[in-house]
């Protein structure tokens, strides 16, 4: 009803739907300014973008499409796109879908889908193929940029390290004093003192001699030392 009211008030409404649509476009006095399109292509079209204004300066992205179960029985969210760069990306996406003249269909007042009548001299535009090509180009550019950045990070430390090493070597050569001969140690200068001579050890006696000597001492003690 609100879409019909907007059309009756002179607002031009353009819709891109995925499949079934419950409103007819081009009904005199009801939906004269309504244009409904769908794109039957490789990917599922379910963008859920809402743009308002002549230049699409007000853009919302939403988690819900325009179905009663979503708008009345579910918790959904729609948020504005405020960043200029992001708004430009969304505008490009919408304009590309509206310029599709190969896979797009348009809803008639009879409720049937008809092909878009394109100028024979106009280039063929398949919006999904264009978006896919752009995605590949962005991915390739990102990979090349990362490779260049990684190469620069590897080269830069080597270039910075070479002057530093030369500076350190020169500084060390200038600052280090000439080496001097170390003085000879005191022990090495004085002649070594001769080792003290050990007295000659008495010759060792045999067991028999020691036994006889012990017996002699014992008899002397018994018979000669009794007075003591």
TrEMBL record:
Residues 176-192 have a biased composition (Low complexity). One of its GO terms (molecular function) is polyphosphate kinase activity. Keywords: Kinase, Transferase. It comes from the Bacteria. One of its GO terms (cellular component) is polyphosphate kinase complex. One of its GO terms (biological process) is polyphosphate biosynthetic process. This is Polyphosphate kinase 1.
